[in-house]
Design goal:
Cytochrome Bc1 Complex, Chain D, domain 2; 2 strands; mainly alpha; 2% strand; binds protoporphyrin IX containing FE; two-stranded antiparallel sheet
């Protein structure tokens, strides 16, 4: 009996060992490219976090009075019930104007090295000032935003608490700082892939592991890597083969508009692929609705690789493991306007 048990034990060890060793090898390769998403926000340059600032930032994020019309908040286009996007091809802003690009998610965006598809803002503080003023987004002015907030006593009090020691804390700069502080808390940790990276070899299925292996071997991970599985570098859309105008409209030359350097034509920020299953439609043009199609286009455009349907399926299975725990947000109740609050413009 004992001998039987021993033989059985050795046999199952021999059978399981190659799988275990293969998984260990996959994990150590993955650790060279990726890092698990931290559960806590990182320290922000020149913007120390405190609970009042985060709460204020949340209120501002949800407050449509940051827009000229009092209809559009950050949450309109970066809907936190929808993984921080608006699920539109390109966003609609002030007076139903259609913007030129797809809205990227705000989730985990604090870990991107630059903001916007073309990286024209260096951090979330600089970024937040853009949409408030953009005529196709919130179409407001810094002066009007400050006048609006100063007309509401509860806001003035909260700015005081969030920016202690400042003489005149209700400023446009501090609006951006508070929003940045709130955005830094919008993290989606503990996805199956994060659990795998932390050493739980059973966090991914066999198919998802195959997808991860392909993602590294085919070369996707050369661009989509780091904490955000992207968000850390720029690359031309169409390194090997430029997609057609239906996917890459010729009018938007990406980073070229920022640097005016010919080699930056059609160069875009490599986007983070975290929560990618939730942030359709895809690409800066928002022209591609299926993740399978997006993966297959990446294969031919970026790698010159004709991925088989099976390879695409496996890679997509892996990409779905990048969906993490969505932030749970208690909807802020916003203080009412007063007689001094500028009226909506529409
Ligand atoms: C880009 C935050 C309002 C549409 C971004 C990004 C962030 C952000 C962090 C960059 C993400 C990345 O590059 O990974 C905010 C905040 C807002 C706000 C804090 C409120 C103050 C809006 C509104 C709209 C909008 C109201 C729609 C009308 C977009 C679009 C982009 C973008 C289309 C991409 C633009 C480009 O790359 O050129 N936003 N957003 N955002 N947002 Fe917003
Ligand atoms: C966009 C996956 C290879 C650079 C995307 C998107 C996905 C994806 C799903 C859409 C993201 C979104 O809309 O939010 C993959 C896969 C790859 C791969 C599965 C391997 C088969 C690469 C490589 C590079 C790269 C090798 C760099 C040379 C980019 C860029 C974009 C992008 C620049 C943004 C394109 C745009 O909209 O302008 N990738 N990618 N990707 N990827 Fe990849």
């Amino acid at each position: 009996r004992l001998l039987n048990l021993l033989v059985l034990g050795i046999l199952s060890f021999c059978l399981a060992f190659p799988v275990w060793a293969g998984d260990q090898d996959l994990l150590s390769r993955a650790r060279r490219y990726f890092e698990p998403l931290p559960e806590k926000p990182p320290a922000l340059k020149g913007n120390p976090l405190n609970p009042y600032k985060i709460e204020l930032g949340k209120m501002l994020y949800f407050d449509p009075r940051l827009s000229a019309s009092h209809l559009i908040s950050c949450n309109t286009c970066h809907n936190l019930s929808l993984a921080g996007v608006d699920i539109q091809e390109t966003s609609t802003g002030h007076m139903w104007q259609r913007g030129p690009r797809n809205a990227p998610t705000v989730l985990n965006s604090v870990f991107n090295t630059a903001q916007f598809w073309d990286g024209r803002a260096k951090d979330l503080e600089e970024q937040a000032k853009g949409p408030v003023q953009a005529s196709v987004e919130m179409s407001n002015t810094p002066e009007r935003v400050v006048a609006t907030l100063k007309s509401i006593p509860e806001y003035v009090e909260l700015f005081r608490k969030a920016f202690p020691g400042e003489k005149d804390p209700v400023t446009f700069d501090n609006v951006a700082k508070a929003i940045e502080a709130f955005e830094a808390t919008l993290l989606t940790p503990n996805s199956p892939f994060d659990r795998f990276l932390k050493g739980d070899l059973r966090a991914l299925t066999a198919e998802e592991k195959e997808g991860l292996r392909l993602f590294m071997e085919k070369g996707c991970a050369n661009c989509h890597n780091g904490i955000n599985v992207g968000g850390g570098m720029y690359a031309p859309f169409g390194v090997v083969e430029r997609p057609g105008a239906d996917i890459l409209p010729p009018g938007d030359k990406g980073r070229f508009a920022v640097t005016k350097t010919a080699s930056d034509e059609y160069v875009f920020k490599v986007p983070s692929l975290r929560n990618i299953a939730l942030t359709y439609p895809y690409f800066h043009s928002g022209k591609v609705w299926s993740l399978e199609d997006a993966v297959s286009i990446m294969g031919s455009a970026q790698l010159g690789a004709d991925l088989s349907p099976e390879e695409v399926r496996k890679i997509v299975a892996f990409l779905k493991t990048l969906t993490g725990k969505q932030p749970e947000i208690v909807l802020p109740i916003l203080p009412p306007s007063t007689d001094r609050t500028p009226r909506p413009i529409l």
